[in-house]
């Protein structure tokens, strides 16, 4: 049994393979030791270069959102962190696992009692269900611990999904989004833990102010944005989401791919001819100046 695992998905179009490889490569680049697992039906990618376990499987259309929770049945791990494939890691994941430990299920966001979310106002849903608030979160990051309580939460969420018309939620790909179903299930059952926005375990740059400073070669991700409040953000995980349509994101994926190719082609401690020449020249200068 693994103590921890990071889990992601890549199925369908080739672009999703490139994205998931970017996530795996970014985790490897920053030295995060958590075993990485990908579930995919896409061929022709060197998955084993970036992931410790590759599960080759297609996902039925009706399970498009619930596949995020597939890891609980397919790998033997005490705790799992699901990350969307269009994410890049800039900090090691241990604080996220520690924050979620013992909580069964964990997401990041505020508890809200009003405000529009996938169509209706949250206050309307809360009134129908007799709950005071619901956690509003982005499902690109989900922490979970396999077991009876998690199964109870998922069963409740699927019940919510089956009765989606009752709430008037906007459908995504023909079904209600996993976020609203799991959110209401958390409010109903009391199962799960909600990480505050200030943790910035994940941020997708919603409400970007000015420039997106994103550079995997310098391990730098920082920017100003206005979601609930104006914040200067340096997230653990940058969830590209909207910015996956921007060239800056795809440049990061290409840079990570080039670094992987560099590693595969060069031995431990490799020094380029230019570096050797520079060292030789500077060694002579040091010797001359010291007499």
List strands and helices in order, with pairings.
Elements: E1 2-10, H1 14-29, E2 36-40, E3 53-56, H2 71-74, E4 77-83, E5 87-89, H3 94-100, E6 105-108, E7 111-112, H4 122-129, E8 134-135, E9 141-144, H5 148-162, E10 171-172, E11 175-176, H6 178-189, E12 193-195, E13 202-203, E14 208-215, E15 220-226, E16 230-233, E17 237-239, H7 247-265, H8 273-290
Parallel strand pairs: 1-2, 1-4, 2-3, 6-12, 13-17
Antiparallel strand pairs: 4-9, 5-17, 6-9, 7-8, 10-11, 14-15, 15-16
Helix pairs in contact: 1-7, 5-6
Indicate the radius of gyration in whole angstroms. Answer: 22 Å
**Number of helices, counting only DSSP H or I runs of 4 residues or more:** 8
Element pattern in H and E:
EHEEHEEHEEHEEHEEHEEEEEEHH
Mean pLDDT: 95
Indicate the percent of residues in helices.
Answer: 25-40%
Residues in β-strands, percent: 15-25%
Task: Name the CATH class.
Answer: Alpha Beta
Q: In the residues, how many domains can be counted?
A: 1
CATH-derived architecture: Alpha-Beta Complex
Task: Name the overall outline.
Answer: elongated
Explain this structure:
This protein is α/β, with parallel strands linked by helices. It has one domain (2-263): Spore Coat Polysaccharide Biosynthesis Protein SpsA, Chain A. The protein is built from eight helices and 17 strands. It has helices spanning 14-29, 71-74, 94-100, 122-129, 148-162, 178-189, 247-265, 273-290, and strands at residues 2-10, 36-40, 53-56, 77-83, 87-89, 105-108, 111-112, 134-135, 141-144, 171-172, 175-176, 193-195, 202-203, 208-215, 220-226, 230-233, 237-239. The strands form five sheets. The chain has a seven-stranded mixed β-sheet. Strands 5-17-13 form a three-stranded mixed β-sheet. Strands 14-15-16 form a three-stranded antiparallel β-sheet, covered by helices on one side. A hairpin with a 3-residue loop joins strand 15 (220-226) and strand 16 (230-233). Helix 1 crosses helix 7 (247-265) and helix 5 packs across helix 6. It is elongated, with a radius of gyration of 22 Å. The mean pLDDT is 95.
